[in-house]
Design the sequence.
């Protein structure tokens, strides 16, 4: 048997028998966000969100704090990072083989032409590398965590009012818009309100009644958010 043929056989021996096909049925989660609740007394500190409303879109991911080696012979290494979920079935969850932030790809084993296509997390905590030909290599006891990441979906839109403090009778409120987790600079603004004239704040549909304010915090009641809710 020549050297290349031997390496091919050697690589195959250490793949779990059978064929694994990653499931691709995952849809990122979206939910309506509207805080604080209407008509409740709320205290917010300088630099914090007073009001926030919009659609929060997030996706599940598998997080590794450090590089993880799968197997003891002819190993695969998963670089540290976040790997977005792509699907699940009754026995496993499947995640991308590419780190969302850095773009690092789980490498295939040297000299074995069977690149990876996904990471499989079984219900018992076992982690497997699934290759493009359906082979898999699994290991147990590896450190990982599940996290939620903000998506870049256009529907992930939020509006916020931020408390920036008080000087004399005037309070400063910041307005911010976020799309896909990123601030929209063109839609940011700072507004001053003179509480000696009125303790009711109105901005882009949001209405707040100020109960007390100083240079560290503000206590208020939200009677209407940016829309009618």
Sequence:
């Amino acid at each position: 048997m020549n050297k290349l043929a031997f390496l091919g056989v050697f690589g195959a021996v250490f793949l779990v028998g059978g064929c694994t096909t990653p499931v691709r049925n995952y849809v990122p989660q979206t939910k309506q966000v509207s805080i604080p609740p209407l008509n409740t007394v709320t205290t917010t500190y300088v630099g914090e969100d007073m009001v926030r409303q919009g659609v929060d879109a997030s996706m599940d991911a598998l997080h590794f704090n450090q590089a993880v080696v799968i197997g003891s012979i002819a190993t695969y290494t998963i670089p540290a990072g976040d790997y977005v979920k792509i699907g699940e079935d009754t026995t496993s969850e499947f995640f991308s083989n590419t780190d969302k932030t850095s773009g690092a790809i789980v490498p295939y084993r040297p000299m074995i032409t069977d690149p990876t296509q996904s990471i499989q997390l079984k219900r018992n905590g076992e982690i497997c590398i699934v290759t493009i030909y359906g082979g898999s290599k699994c290991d147990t006891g590896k450190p990982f965590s599940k996290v939620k990441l903000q998506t870049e979906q256009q529907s992930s839109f939020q509006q916020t009012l931020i408390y920036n403090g008080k000087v004399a009778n005037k309070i400063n409120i910041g307005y911010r818009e976020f799309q896909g987790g990123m601030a929209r600079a063109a839609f940011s603004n700072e507004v001053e309100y003179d509480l000696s004239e009125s303790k009711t704040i109105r901005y882009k549909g949001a209405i707040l009644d100020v109960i007390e304010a100083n240079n560290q915090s503000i206590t208020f009641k939200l009677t209407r958010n940016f829309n009618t809710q």
